[in-house]
Each structure stands twice: as structure tokens, then as C-alpha cells.
Amino acid sequence: MDDPSLQMTIGLVGVAAAYVVLAVLLLSVNVASRWLWWIKSVAIVVTALFFVQSYSSVAGLIGWPTNDRLPDRFEFLWATVAEPNKFFDVPGAVFIWVDAFGADDAPNGTPRAYRVPYSRALSDQIAAAEALVREGKAVAGYARPLPMVAAAAAGDTRDLGQQRINELRPANFTENAVEVLLEEMQPTGRQPPAR
């Protein structure tokens, strides 16, 4: 289930199924209850309006970047870096658009937007990768889990350099945290060998 459009379809079907279950429950309660008919009617109309409003709200969220972990191998398409702002206590983020590689070591053709924690090293990589994209070159990316996240989250920071600690502040530690490496793709259009 790596196809994002399939995931989105399944998600929307799930939301619609939840609406049907709620509607059946509401109707069954209304049939069995001794409420006045106008109270039952108002409950049905309010519930129907809630369904329409919540469905349109969910549909509006589909285009927002996900906080899911980046795919292990992908083609870098573009990114936007939101630098941290200490004055407003904003940790910063990198919004990156990628196209995951399929089983045939080629992009699957379905771009997806991801939100990853900001780091100076990633920001520098993004600038270099965007320069390559502007030149018309394809850029491959790799995402590896950060091996030191578990140690840092547990408070064991003996082996971590101070610069690394500052780049990955505790607020940015999640189970989806990754180290990203971006580099120019081979001229064949296929990705470099897996690292």
C-alpha cells in the first residue's frame, strides 16, 4: 500500500463509512425513542449538516504535508525551509516534496509533501539540491532513521556532539525522525544504488 492515491481513497472511504454508521445509530435511536417528532427532525438535520461540514473540512486537509517518515529512497523535487524563530518559539521545519522510488528503482510518479524537523545541515543540503534541480538535474534522496534519537530521547547524550544536540532539539525528536542525504542522480534517470 505504497500508492498515496490508494491511501487517500481508503481514508475517504473510511470517513464515509463512519458517517454511515453514525447515521444508522442516530436513526435507530430516533425510531426507538419517545422524543417529540420535531426534536427528532432537528437532530437528523443537524447531523446531516455536520456530515457535510466535516467531510468538506477533511477534503480540505488532503493537500497539507504529512508528518509521516520520509521514504527510504526518493527523488527530490523541491523544498521550502522555514527557519527557526527563537523570539516566537518556532522550532522551524523543512517542507519537502518527493517522489518515492518503486520496486523497479524508478520514481513511482506520485509526488508527496512531507514536513521534517529543521536542521542546519538539512537546510544546506536543500540549497545544494535546489541548485541542481534548477540546472535540470535529478536529485536522489535517502532517509535513514537517526540512531541517536532513542539515546537522546532517553536522556543519554554522552556520545552526542553539542552541535548535533542543537540541530535536533528535544522538541524535534519523534519516532519518524530521519537523517536525509541528497545527491545528484545518475544520468540514466535511475537512482544510485541503495546505501
Q: What attributes characterize this protein structure?
A:
five-stranded antiparallel sheet, 41% helix, alpha+beta, 195 residues, 2 domains, single chain, 5 strands
Side by side, the strands of the main sheet go 3-2-1-4-5
**Helix segment count?**
5
Which residue ranges are poorly predicted, with pLDDT under 50 across at least 5 consecutive positions? 149-173
Main sheet, how many strands, which sense, barrel? Answer: 5 strands, antiparallel
Structural class: alpha+beta
Radius of gyration using CA atoms only: 23 Å
Using the alpha-carbon principal axes, give the shape: elongated
Number of domains: 2
Q: Mean pLDDT, rounded to whole units?
A: 76
How many strands in all? 5
Distance between the termini: 23 Å
Strand content: 15-25%
**N-to-C order of helices and strands:** HHEEEHEHHE
Helix coverage percent: 40-55%
Give your account of this protein's structure.
The protein is α+β, with helices and mostly antiparallel strands and 195 residues long. It has two domains: 4-61; 73-184, no CATH class. It contains five helices and five strands; from the N terminus they run H-H-E-E-E-H-E-H-H-E. The model is unreliable at 149-173 (pLDDT under 50).
